[in-house]
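Researcher: Before we compare anything, I want clean individual predictions. No alignment, no superposition, just each chain on its own. First chain goes here; please echo the sequence and then give the structure tokens.
Model: Echoing the first chain and its structure:
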Amino acid sequence: MTDLSKIASTILSEGSHKSEDSPRLIRVLLNGTYIFSSTETKLTWEHPYFPQYYFPLSSLSHKDTLTNPENSKEGYTIYDVKVGSVTKPKAAVLLNKGPLEGFYRLDHKVLDALFEEDDSIDGHPADPYKRIDTRRSSRPVKVSVDGVVVAEASWSIHLFETMLPVRFYLPRTSAKWEFLKPSETKTFCPYKGEASYFDVEVNGERKKDLVWWYPNSRMESLAVEGMLCFYNEKVDITLDGKELVRAKTKFG
């Protein structure tokens, strides 16, 4: 569940990083009903990493969808979202002042679906100023954890994503599977899809979620579907005989 009070408070006190009009038809579904529908949303960056949609007052399909208002002295109102027998507590916030006055932010995690035009969007919207590219490479890659080689490949797919280090996706047969242990972790990327993970166990120590893969990649990243990727930030990678410096990002 998203803390909409905290988000609204931060937006009102510090402002958003960026906000712009979106021409896309954006709809939100709950319990078989489109509760918001608009071609006049604001694509808003609450932090530098990715945006969220903010909906104008006019996009609310039924006024009785929002119930149990809680007004804040800081200038926002929190609502429950109710459709029929289904109620999602504190799932919408209305900003009552500032540049986004009259716009709602929803907790999409607890609602049924968010659509851009006719495509369902899982997680958060993609950032239109970021992109990914993939390139096949015959430069050999070796991955080590605490001095133990856990994967070695004669080729890989290099994935280039804005503001992130190059990621090396290796064929599954390159892994030394005695070191990889299934993880229950799932994450979502709007550019690549839902990721599954493996832990790595070496020298009697299990390291959580060092490896991820996409069972069903999105169109932009079909080249890496089913392949394994290790966190550059947490393992030692040798590319074409040269050991790479570990990347430093928010992931490690």
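Researcher: Okay. Second chain, same rules.
Model: Second chain and its structure:
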Amino acid sequence: MPDKNENQKHVAHAGGVKEAKVDAERLKKRIQRHYDVTSDQFLKPPVRGEHIHHGYFKSSTDTNEQAQLNQVIRLVESSGVSAGSRVLDVGCGIGGTARYLAREQGCKVTAITNSRRQVEIARELMAAEVARLTSQSSSPPLPPGSTDFVQYPSSASSAGAGALRVLHLDVVQMLEHLGDTQGETFDCIWVSEVVFHLHARQLFFDSAFALLDPGGCIVIADIFRAAHDPASSSKRTQKELASIRRNHLCPQLGTVDEYEQMAWKARFRPRHKSIDITKNVAKTW
């Protein structure tokens, strides 16, 4: 699913570029605080479990947990990742998808988030999972700020041993830190319900393209507004969109067309057509 940007529109606001940068920084800090405070709750019923994203309901009997796994599997199939694939999970939450990719697919996963609490939770869950899978009583804790990969054992489903590391890293800094400084590249960049939070969407796409090996792919699931909707200019619709921006901590929802234009500008070329799965994920709420 392709992706796109609104930051040029923000520059046109009164106050110009400086005000836009202040707004972007203020929103980023709100997002960090939100996930620092709320992430522990995702592990407690009746919320969402280990995945902080919508679920794809294939049947009326699917639980939220199964629906979220369905969504991950759909993106695995779309991306084509397999054992040994180097995956960058951008906005990894508490690491549910990253652990699945390492454990079940045998991928070598770098998971990043700008929430320090999410990093702590994701590392704790990773250590506990690896200890369980290797029949150890416990796994030695990672030192704070560790960038080391933790190895997963081979499984029948993965056909190879995966690995995972979780880093405290902002999207804006991912190219400088991972690419320019570390010289790393990836086979797949995985982005599930993250881009809608961003002001600097074009920067994200440009950075993602630079971090991919030739032939690599980006797979995106996100929250969009409908394009060419005659009702979009109504007061009621504008009020609803304002509520979404406020409650979901995003500058403005983009359309699929806008995302695709951004992706093309960054030199991505589509492998698949975008798919509207609104009806399948609506039950998440």
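Researcher: What stands out in the second chain?
Model: The first helix runs from residue 7 to 11. Additionally, The radius of gyration is 19 Å.
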